[in-house]
Each structure stands twice: as C-alpha cells, then as structure tokens.
Design goal:
Strands 12, 13, 14, 16, 17, 19 and 20 form a seven-stranded antiparallel β-sheet that branches. This protein has a five-stranded mixed β-sheet with strand order 2-11-10-3-9. The protein is built from 20 helices and 20 strands. The protein starts with a helix and ends with a helix. Helix 1 runs antiparallel to helix 2, helix 12 packs across helix 13 and helix 16 packs across helix 17. It is of the alpha+beta class and 582 residues long.
Length: 582
C-alpha cells in the first residue's frame, strides 16, 4: 500500500469522525479552519491519485453532471402518511384505540392509560426521504412520492453534509433503509435567500419549500451549495431487526452515524405525551428549525406490529399538529375557477401576507354559501388561517374595518371560461320512492366537456396514475392538446397521431413516440381503473373497485338500476344515480 493511499484512508477516517461529532453529536472537536485544512489535503491527494477516489469519500459531496429527469423508485415498504390530531381529545382517543388494540386496560376519555410507552419528537417541516444502505454504503436516495413510488434523488442526497456516505462502526444489517426528513434551518434559509437576492435569483417563501426545491434539482451541484440537513426518524426495509423499540433503533442508528433529533424523548402514557407537546409548543419559536407539530409513536416494535396499519397510515403513530396560524389582510378581489365537474368556485385574491412562514396571496372560499356565512365583501379586512400544508382559508371578516366602497361578491351568470350558463345545483333527497328538491351550495357551468376548463380537468384526471396511467401527459401537455383543438373528450386521445403532437412545445420525435406508445398501452386497463378514470361524481377508487368486482363489465354497470347499486358497499344513493346516468 502506497504512502498516498495510507494518508487518504487516514484523512477519510478522521474527517468522517469529525463530521459525526459535528453533525450527529453536536460536539465539534476541532475548529473549522483545521477541518478545512484536512479536507483540502484529502482533496489534493485524490486529485493527484484519481484511481483512489471512492464514492464514500468526504470529497464526493459536490454534485455531478445535471440529470435530464429523475427515475422512479418503488418503495419495498410503503412510506405511509400519519394521521393527525389537533385537540387534546384527539390524542386521548388515539391512546384509547392503541390500548384497546393491545388489549390493555383503558381509562376514560380524560383519564387515559399510562400503560403504553411512546416515543416523542418534533415534526420537522421538510421533505421525507428514504436512504438505502447496502453493506453500510449509501447506494440510493429517494423521495416519499405517493408513498408507493418516489423519485431517485441519489446524486442529490449525497451532497447533504450530515448524511453518512458510509455507516460508522459495525454490525449494521446488510440491507438497511433509513427514513427521515431533509430540512433547512431558519438561519440557513435566511442565508440562502440573502444570497439569491444578491445574484438576482428566485427567493423562497419558507424553509420547507427551499429544502424541497433544493433536493429536487436536476443539477446536483446546485443542491450541494444549499444548506440542507437530514434528521433520521425511522427505518423501512431492513434485512434483520436492530432493536425491540423505536427509540432503540434510533439510538443505534445514531451510533452508526445517523443524525437524530436532540429532542427525542420517551413518554410513559398519554399525559406525558401531552406535557411534551406543550413544552415543545412553548419552545417552538426558539428552535433553530421550523416544526408544525409533534410525532408520537408506540415505542415497542412488537406492539407496532400487533397494531398494524390502516389503508394509508399506521395505527401506532400520530402527528399532533400545532394550532393554525392566523393573520389579518385585505380581500382585493374574488375570482371564479371552474373545476372538473363544472363547479364554479370563488377564490379570494388577497393582499400578500406571511402566515406560518409562507406568503399567502390566495385563499379558498369553498362556495357562495360560505361567502354568505362570512358576510364577505370585496375590500374587507379578513382573518386568514393556514394550518400546516392545508390551503389557506378565510375564517372571519373584521366588519368594523369595512371600507365605504366595499362591493358585494356576485356569482357570474356565465362561465368565465366558456360563456355557458351558470346554474345553482339542486339537492335531491330520495327515500321511499319520494324525491325532495332543495337548493345546493354549488354553482355549476352547464357546458360540460364543451367548457375548456372542465375538459382539461377531466382529461388530467383520466390520464392520472391511479386512472389510465398515461405517462407523458402532464397538465401542461393536456392544456396544449385542448387549446390546439386536438382533443375534445378523453376518447380523442386514442385518435392522436404522430404529426398532431410532434410540433407541440416540449415534444420531439422520441417523446411523441413514447406518448403514443403509452396511450396504446393504456387500452387494456382493469375495469376498476377505467370506471374511476371516467370521473363520475361520488365514484372514487374504492367505489370503482366495488362496481368492477360486483358487476364484472361496463355494460352491466350502465344497466344496473340505482336501487340495485345501493345494495353494494361504498355506493350511496346519490352516487348510484350518477352511475345510472352513464
């Protein structure tokens, strides 16, 4: 072994140890200047001996050649979302379900049970990622995506300074998937925006957007220059168990070089969980990073397995969100948007204001009944609320600040997109052969697929992953096809030819052929997917599956009477009438 190789190995080991002490233990052992000296020595040695460079070297975090697109990654163990709690009673109900599920003694709603131990840690406001290690070496990084399929961001996660490229110590499983959050500290966010202003670049609204945008850069050299950090909160796929508790898993991961939350704590019973939530809430503004709540997990791995999962979330974990953040601003105007079903929905255009770290300029008003309930007029001062990632909403009008020139909000008589008549929907209650008609809360454009907005949304739904899954037809492409008059219904997609699309923006010979192939491949979907793709009101994925499984063909679905359909699970009377109108 040459002297250069020996020195390279020594420097790598020393720098890895310093990175561990700095990022994981928060106990730096040398000044930054000394770290820089060692780093530059290693970099110089590797430059002189390029055959000795390996992927796990501390120098290999600078990014590489820009990608043209991210490839997809299927998660072997789904990355599920968490159920939410907003009130103390929600948390006590969660504890009751857990104790019942484990067949433990259950107290009353306010007494709870102290039998269950929970792990507690802040819910970081960043981007969930998966890191896959094989024999201790980082081989893949992926986003959460839809929980089943994410994007391969391996080249980008390698640039995050506190993600170990090789695990420390020994004894790690041959296959180990680490899950956690990539985020940006408040200070890092401020530095990034300041530097963006200096170069005339785009600034970010909040640390979460900055972290997500940085991690999904096609050019990883940009990611490498962003102040990103990682915090581990669990494991996914693993070749053998690590510990019999969740906290035990995290503590062991920390020994292998993974940063975990300094606020991680064990709580015995629901009351200690609530105490932890109140404590973190009181210290929230003084933390160096943004959080939007606290995550509680049953600590015992055996108990987690016994409790299992619902369709989209584990029964053994919950996120207790902080109260919604509210601010005052001015309602500048109300505009109307047209959705897939023709619903004409009012949208508030606001004087921009920062709420919970996000600049808000628009808010949902739901429908005209909500406008009436609020007594809302254009020009009013309003209170808006933003809770987590929920779309901001107007919650109250400050009537004493109403200006003299305030204007009433009027629903348009004609569709703002196609000019068709806008009519108020009717609610039809059917029971024992009788129908009772009343006015609904929704106004609807009667143009149906003749309305460009409805047509675009209908096609976007039709081609979506859970429907016909036509890859290559994003929102922008669908808009072009409609605007150019190439499609006037989802069925027209199957009549598209190469010459129709090759000259559209974003298309060329290869992408046009790929799209046509994807359209051809979609001709043989399962019946359930096709029914769901039709976008029938009140018919979601589960109802579509029930219809397909129970009736077996589209013809039978069309012929089934509403009274017959209502005997099927997941199919209500209103949905049954919509299906019968096919």
């Amino acid at each position: 072994m040459t002297a250069a190789k020996n020195r390279i190995l020594e420097l790598r080991a020393e720098l890895d140890q310093h990175n561990y002490r700095y990022h994981v233990l928060d106990e730096p052992s040398i000044p930054d200047a000394e770290y820089d000296r060692l780093f530059h020595e290693l970099k110089a040695l590797e430059a002189a001996n390029p055959e000795l460079i390996t992927s796990d070297s501390p120098t290999q975090r600078v990014g590489s050649v820009a990608l043209t697109a991210f490839t997809q990654v299927r998660h072997e163990v789904p990355m599920l979302s968490l159920g939410n709690a907003f009130e103390e009673s929600d948390m006590r109900e969660f504890d009751r379900r857990v104790t019942e599920g484990l067949d433990l003694p259950v107290g009353d709603l306010f007494g709870g049970s102290a039998a269950v131990e929970y792990s507690c840690e802040p819910k970081l406001d960043g981007l969930a990622v998966s890191l896959l290690y094989q024999d201790g070496v980082l081989v893949r990084g992926a986003t959460r995506g839809d929980g089943t399929t994410g994007e391969d961001i391996s080249v980008n996660v390698r640039t995050v300074r506190n993600i170990p490229l090789k695990l420390h110590g020994e004894g790690w499983p041959a296959t180990l998937e680490v899950r956690g959050e990539v985020f940006m500290s408040k200070a890092g966010f401020e530095r990034l925006n300041a530097s963006q202003l200096e170069i005339g670049g785009k600034t970010f609204a909040n640390p979460r957007n900055a972290a997500a945008g940085s991690l999904r850069q096609l050019d990883s050299k940009i990611t490498a220059n962003r102040p990103l950090e990682f915090c581990c909160y669990g494991i996914g796929q693993v070749s053998h168990d690590i510990s019999d508790t969740h906290i035990g898993n995290l503590k062991q991961l920390q020994k292998w070089g993974m940063p975990i939350s300094h606020e991680l704590k064990l709580a015995k019973g629901i009351d200690e969980c609530l105490d932890y939530y109140r404590d973190i809430g009181a210290r929230r503004n003084s933390l160096t990073y943004e959080i939007d709540g606290v995550v509680f997990k049953v600590n015992s791995i055996a108990d987690q397995r016994e409790l299992g999962f619902r369709a989209r979330e584990p029964r053994w974990a919950i996120a207790h969100k902080f109260p919604a953040m509210e601010e005052l601003t001015e309602l500048l105007d109300v505009e109307f948007q047209v959705g897939r079903t023709g619903a004409v929905t009012p949208v508030a255009r606001l004087k921009p204001v920062k709420v919970a770290g996000v600049t808000v300029a628009n808010a949902t008003l739901h429908n005209m009944d909500e406008v009436a309930r609020l007594g809302l007029m254009i020009g009013d001062t309003v209170i808006i609320r933003r809770a987590g990632d929920v779309i901001p909403q107007v919650v109250q009008v400050v009537t004493e600040r109403r200006p003299e020139n305030a204007r009433a909000v009027q629903i348009p008589e004609s569709c703002p997109v196609c000019g068709s008549h806008v009519e108020r929907t009717q609610l039809i209650k059917r029971s024992k052969g009788k129908e009772t008609v009343s006015e609904g809360a929704v106004y609807r454009c009667v143009g149906r697929l003749a309305c460009g907005a409805q047509l675009k949304q209908a096609i976007i739904h039709f081609v979506s992953r859970r429907a016909m899954d036509i890859e290559g037809l994003g929102d922008k492409s669908v808009e072009q096809l409609v605007d150019e008059g190439l499609v006037s219904s989802p069925a027209d997609l199957y009549a598209l030819k190469f010459d129709d699309i090759v000259d559209l923006e974003g298309f060329a010979e290869v992408s046009s052929n790929k799209l046509l192939a994807a359209i051809e491949d979609s001709k043989k979907p399962g019946l359930a997917r096709f029914i769901y793709a039709l976008g029938i009101p009140d018919v979601g994925e589960e109802t579509a599956k029930v219809l397909a499984r129970s009736l077996g063909s589209l013809e039978r679905v069309q012929q089934a009477l509403p009274t017959v359909l209502t005997y099927l699970p997941e199919c209500g009377l209103d949905g049954a009438h919509e299906i019968h109108l096919l």
